[in-house]
Amino acid sequence: MEIEVVELCLESLRSGCFPVGSVITNAEGQIISKGRNTIHESEPKGYPVFGNSIAHAELNALVSMKRIPDDLDVSDYVIYTSMEPCVMCFGAIYMSGIKNVVYGMKDGVGGGLNLYGLTQYYSRKKINICQNKKLEKIQAVLVGFLCDKSYVQRAGFWQTYISMYPAEYSIAEQLRESGVYDKIMANELGAAQFIDIVERSTRG
């Protein structure tokens, strides 16, 4: 599932948005919905929420799901996201009935997974939360490409990111210097290739 999620991240990056991707799978492991960050986009491009601050990847994936019959149990569905869901997105996931969350990079500023179990309401359902370490590395490197974007400076996000992921930021800088970032932006590099490059950089 990593390739599909990362491909959505790259699409967001090319569109000038924060590079986060999300997919939802059913009980059989089939992808039934996709979403990506579309905050800075003025046209839908296949995603229902766009052009405002709530146009997050997870929200787009949830809203993009085909209408689910009332008697269909979605508790076995899984939502994969490259970054820890914010409070808004985790709340939407929780209310959707999906009980399995797989995420990548931790969000030390806006992450909302600590909402689980915090109140009586958010303690009613058993939610399985798992961190995917490969997605964590990929997402953290992608965030490192955003060093010149003003929006990452808000609320102390960039400083927190640097303190949590110094190695991944260093890799991002190396990949930018070697032309990998330019190839991504020119749509000359796909998700599978980028994942392989990051894994080789990490091993090196």
Automatic annotation (TrEMBL):
Q: What sequence ranges are listed for the domain CMP/dCMP-type deaminase?
A: 1-116
Keywords associated with the record: Metal-binding, Zinc
Q: Tell me the InterPro entries matching this sequence.
A: APOBEC/CMP_deaminase_Zn-bd (IPR016192), CMP_dCMP_dom (IPR002125), Cytidine_deaminase-like (IPR016193)
An example of a GO molecular function for this protein is: zinc ion binding
Name the UniProt record assigns to this protein:
Cytidine deaminase
Instruction: Please tell me the species this chain comes from.
Output: Pseudothermotoga hypogea DSM 11164 = NBRC 106472
